[in-house]
UniProtKB/TrEMBL annotation:
Highest taxon, organism lineage: Bacteria
Gene3D superfamilies (UniProt xref): 3.40.50.2300
Modified residues (4-aspartylphosphate): 54
Keyword Protease: no
GO BP terms in the entry: phosphorelay signal transduction system; regulation of DNA-templated transcription
Organism: Actinomadura physcomitrii
Gene Ontology MF terms: DNA binding
Lineage: Bacteria, Bacillati, Actinomycetota, Actinomycetes, Streptosporangiales
Full protein name: Response regulator
Domain Response regulatory, residue spans: 3-119
Length: 201
């Protein structure tokens, strides 16, 4: 029997997935949670073979959970299942150690098949997403540039960002200029939109 942990914050979706997976003769959902910060404790408690994790979770992002799960419970394979099929998310998930990445509009039978495949050591990625991720290419921004861009997301001024990140205003302006150039955007609003659309932020 393949033991599965399910992390999904939408109650109806979580209940439907539990029912769907438990219908499979060789699958059993041994734990479920609606919070990202609860995934690792529940996994350590129940020792699942595969953790099916959403990206957008309260408490902690599913992308952040992957690394901890990989370190604390190396035998547990992580399969990301999300509404957000952004190329950058695929790359970040795989770089963090996820074994698979599916979008929620995939047919139901594909989830059960993907769980079996990742447990067998395969990597499973939605084909359309894989193609898009290759076309978009890697994230061109550094961690610091991403911090500056995230701080700019709510319309903050260079002074606001400088204060928040303990930088000078000139340094912030230089970062923003570099970000705009690297992303091929016309301004920082467009850079933010592009970074979000590609899953870099």
């Amino acid at each position: 029997m393949i033991r599965v942990l399910l992390a999904e914050d939408q109650g109806m979706m979580r209940d439907a997935l539990v029912l769907l997976l438990n219908l499979e003769e060789d699958l059993e959902v041994v734990a479920e949670t609606d919070r990202g910060d609860d995934v690792v404790p529940r996994a350590l408690e129940t020792r699942p073979d595969v953790a099916v994790v959403d990206i957008e979770l309260p408490g902690r992002s599913g992308l952040d959970v992957i690394t901890d799960l990989h370190q604390r419970l190396p035998a547990c394979r992580v399969l990301i299942v999300t509404t957000f099929g952004r190329p950058g998310y695929v790359r970040r998930a795989m770089d963090a150690g996820a074994a698979g990445f599916l979008v929620k509009d995939s047919p139901g039978h594909e989830l059960a098949a993907a769980i079996r495949r990742v447990l067998a050591g395969e990597r499973v990625i939605d084909p359309e997403l894989a193609t898009t991720a290759l076309a978009v290419g890697p994230n061109p921004l550094t961690e610091r540039e991403l911090e500056v861009l995230a701080a700019a997301d709510d319309g903050a001024t260079a002074a606001d960002i400088a204060k928040l990140l303990s930088l000078s205003e000139n340094t912030v302006r230089n970062y923003l200029s570099g970000i705009i150039q690297k992303t091929g955007a016309r301004n920082r609003i467009e850079a933010i939109q592009k970074a979000r659309r590609n899953g870099w932020l």
